């Protein structure tokens, strides 16, 4: 199984920036999709951003568009989520997910086989 480990979360002030990292254990796949989801207390898990390795395309939720940037370091099996201008509404547990091979809508959590345990982001 592939292991995903998130890091980089923490408490920050509104307006601050934060970079989350998701390190995957080594695996072999020509094409895959890695995504970030988040879940606020009492809320449903929602897709934040995703990146496809096949064509490098990225996708963002409406709340993340323009403020979040997803990127990857293929050699390190790591995906990043750069977040800027954070607000209290961004407070949530952030999860990394992997779909290999990629199949379906990027924000459909049902398609993702592998999940990390999450990293907490708290904006005050």
In short:
This protein has 124 residues and is mainly β. 0% of the residues lie in helices and 47% in strands.
Describe the overall structure.
- The strands form two sheets. Strands 2, 4, 5, 6, 9, 10 and 11 form a seven-stranded mixed beta sheet that branches. This protein has a four-stranded antiparallel beta sheet with strand order 1-3-8-7, with no helix packed on it.
- The protein is built from no helices and eleven strands.
- It is mostly beta strands and 124 residues long.
- A hairpin with a 5-residue loop joins strand 5 (46-52) and strand 6 (58-60).
- It is globular, with a radius of gyration of 13 Å.
- 0% of the residues lie in helices and 47% in strands.
- It has strands at residues 4-7, 10-12, 18-24, 33-39, 46-52, 58-60, 68-73, 78-83, 92-99, 114-115, 119-123.
Number of strands: 11
Extract low-pLDDT stretches.
none
The helix/strand series, from N terminus to C terminus, equals EEEEEEEEEEE
Helical residue percent band: under 10%
Shape: globular
Alpha-carbon Rg, integer: 13 Å
Number of helices: 0
Give the distance, in angstroms, between the N- and C-terminal Cα atoms. Answer: 37 Å
Structural class: mainly beta
Largest sheet: 7 strands, mixed
Average of the residue pLDDT scores? 93
- What amount of the residues lies in strands? over 45%
Which labels suit this protein?
single chain; 124 residues; mainly beta; seven-stranded mixed β-sheet; four-stranded antiparallel β-sheet; 11 strands; 0% helix; globular
């Amino acid at each position: 199984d592939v292991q995903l480990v998130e890091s980089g979360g923490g408490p920050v002030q509104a307006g601050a920036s934060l970079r989350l990292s998701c390190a995957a254990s080594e695996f072999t796949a020509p094409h895959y999709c890695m995504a970030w989801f988040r879940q606020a207390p009492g809320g449903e898990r929602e897709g934040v951003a995703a990146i496809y390795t096949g064509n490098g395309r990225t996708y963002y939720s409406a709340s993340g568009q323009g403020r979040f940037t997803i990127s990857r370091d293929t050699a390190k099996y790591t995906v990043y989520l750069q977040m800027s201008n954070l607000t209290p509404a961004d407070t949530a547990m952030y999860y990394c997910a992997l779909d290999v091979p990629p199949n379906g809508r990027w924000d459909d959590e049902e398609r993702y086989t592998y999940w990390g345990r999450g990293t907490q982001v708290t904006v005050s």
